[in-house]
Amino acid sequence: MDLLKAGQKLSILFQKEDSLVEIACVISALLEDRIVIDLPQYFMRYIEYLDVGCSLTIKAFSKIGTVDFNTIVITSPLEDEFSVELDYNAMKLTPNDEIPVVDAVETLNITMGEKFFKVSTFEIATEYLKFYCDYEFKLDDTFDCELILPKKCGIIRFKGTVTYIDPVYDNEYQISYSNMVDEDRQTLLYYMYLYSNSSD
Hints:
Layout: E1 9-16, E2 19-30, E3 34-38, E4 55-61, E5 65-75, E6 82-85, E7 92-95, E8 101-102, E9 107-112, E10 115-125, E11 128-132, E12 142-148, E13 155-165, E14 172-178, H1 182-198
């Protein structure tokens, strides 16, 4: 996963007595098993919470959402560098309030009863996608879908329901997602993150 990169802003959060402390930092380097972080100059006042073995929460920010995970300190800021454990399996990507949208062309397989359609998307969002198809779907038609993403992401399965038919281009449809497992939702967000970054 490429959810984190050098130069990216993040926050370190930890509990200090009755309050939650948040320190704004920057990723200095990503190593195989840890993240090296540049701390602000005032870190010494919190040194006891940044010692080896201390538990922290990390929040990193991207344009489509926030990546957050719990971690532990591997090297103290009093050593050469401050680093925390990197575990991609512990990460969760939460979308921003504004629905992220990418103008992506991917294959969508639709199965509706005995009928099968292999179509192309032209817009993918966290709550819906749009595609072209010569078949005449109706509003509220529901069918099984497989969204075929690049190998790095895989296949996302869900039930799609037609929520909008373009009044001008009658072969353009919008469907909403349902019955999508949480792991697939995370995969969709990860795909959108990668797509957004590669199209900058």
